[in-house]
């Protein structure tokens, strides 16, 4: 299986970047769980402080969305299952300054351009029988937005994280998710992230063996 995890960092200049609060915990927990089930896991991860000590998990460290896309594109044709757990930055600076930007004046505007949507691009070239899973972090119109992503990115399943739930999302060790499929919705209780990972892997496993 192939999995993306963590944030991406988009360079502004040699010392600064645009990033987000993703820790990679959910993705790494899913990788660990798949490895325990006997899968060989290709884990493409943005910058995190996490480590996996399991020979069945091959970690490729990347920094930016473009680098993550290249690594995923190369590994996708060999994958039976692809899980997009990374919090990919949606935009990157249009120009990366080659020298540190010096402080001048009171305002600074950085022009941003859209990053590649890794899940959507891979969704266009999805192989027959390949099972793909995305994540959605929403604050409003949760299930409508998640369903839209499910179809737009050609996914089999989307794991919806609601930031409205206490104890869920970034910076927590717990998470409360709802898994949406074209014909099914499964809601789970607030749990430790490694238990949530187990629920996600179990449901993928069930669907693959149905
Ligand atoms: N994703 C991706 N590449 C991107 C953006 C998102 O692969 N450039 C993947 C994420 O890993 C996740 C899914 O797409 O599995 C949904 O990500 P999310 O940020 O919720 O959706 P977006 O399509 O970026 O929409 P928005 O941020 O506006 O809600
Ligand atoms: Ca996004």
From TrEMBL:
InterPro entries the record matches: CoaB-like_sf (IPR035929), DNA/pantothenate-metab_flavo_C (IPR007085)
Segments forming domain DNA/pantothenate metabolism flavoprotein C-terminal: 1-205
Pfam families in UniProt: DFP (PF04127)
Span of the signal peptide: none
The protein's name: Phosphopantothenoylcysteine decarboxylase
Organism of derivation: Pontibacter silvestris
């Amino acid at each position: 299986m192939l999995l993306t995890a963590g944030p991406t960092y988009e360079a502004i200049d040699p010392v600064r970047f645009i990033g987000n609060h993703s820790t990679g915990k959910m993705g790494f927990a899913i990788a660990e769980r798949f490895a325990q089930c006997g899968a060989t896991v290709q884990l493409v991860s943005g910058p995190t402080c996490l480590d996996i000590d399991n020979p069945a998990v091959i970690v490729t460290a990347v920094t930016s969305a473009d680098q993550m896309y290249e690594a995923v594109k190369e590994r996708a044709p060999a994958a039976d299952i692809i899980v997009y757990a990374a919090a990919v930055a949606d935009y990157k600076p249009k120009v990366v300054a080659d020298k540190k930007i010096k402080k001048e004046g009171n305002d600074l505007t950085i022009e941003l351009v859209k990053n590649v949507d890794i899940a959507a691009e891979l969704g266009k070239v999805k192989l027959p029988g390949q099972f793909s899973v995305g994540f959605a972090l929403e604050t409003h119109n949760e299930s409508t937005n998640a369903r839209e992503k499910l179809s737009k990115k050609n996914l089999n399943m989307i794991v919806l994280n609601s930031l409205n739930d206490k104890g869920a999302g970034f910076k927590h060790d717990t998470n409360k998710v709802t898994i949406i499929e074209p014909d099914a919705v499964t809601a789970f209780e607030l749990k430790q992230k490694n238990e949530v990972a187990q629920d996600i892997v179990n449901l993928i496993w069930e669907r693959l063996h149905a």
